[in-house]
Amino acid sequence: MIKMIFFKSKLNSIFDAVISEGVKMETTESKGWNPYLAGALSGVLSILSVWVAGKYFGASTTFVRSTGFIEQALGPERVAKMAYFVKVTPKIDWQWMFVVGILLGSLIASTTSRTFRWKAVPEMWQERFGPGKFKRGTVAFLGGVIAMFGARLADG
């Protein structure tokens, strides 16, 4: 309880300092949110997460667990035999909710800053590599596979 009171007072003082310094979060149509402020707040949130809950931010296990959910629906006996899913059971936990929060938070941020767009091929990609959706999707998928492999290799 004392930790939570201290946490709340520290958080209030951080926001007061940000407001008193005149840091503003841009929400106009031409600009997104201030990346320095958003990054600083993400860092503060990460530190507070470890300090208060003893948990580090992470997402790669969530994707593996979600795959386990899907596979459990299709063939539960197979999942029950897999060594990984015996050790790390497919379940909804704080990390799974964190990933859902990332999705919802980014949706809220992009809609409130009026920068949300449905685009299969962003302009920067189109200028460099052409308008091909298949090529874009293939490269995005392979990039995700490499990033996930690295995260899992690092036990993340």
Throw out a few tags for this protein.
156 residues, 3 domains, 8 helices
Describe the structure.
The protein is built from eight helices and no strands. The model is unreliable at 17-29 (pLDDT under 50). It has three domains: 1-55, no CATH class; 58-116, no CATH class; 120-156. By secondary structure, the chain is mainly α. The chain has helices at residues 2-20, 35-53, 60-74, 76-81, 83-87, 94-112, 123-129, 133-153.
Topology diagram in text:
Elements: H1 2-20, H2 35-53, H3 60-74, H4 76-81, H5 83-87, H6 94-112, H7 123-129, H8 133-153
N→C terminal distance:
31 Å
Please tally the helical runs, counting DSSP H or I stretches of 4 or more residues: 8
> What does the largest sheet look like?
none
Described by the principal axes of the CA atoms, the overall outline is: globular
Number of strands: 0
Strand content: under 5%
Query: What is the averaged pLDDT score?
Result: 78
Q: What is the share of helical residues?
A: over 70%
* Whole-number tally of structural domains: 3
Structural class: mainly alpha
H and E string: HHHHHHHH
Radius of gyration: 20 Å
State the low-pLDDT regions, or none.
Answer: 17-29
Question: Nutshell version of this structure?
Answer:
By secondary structure, the protein is mostly helical.
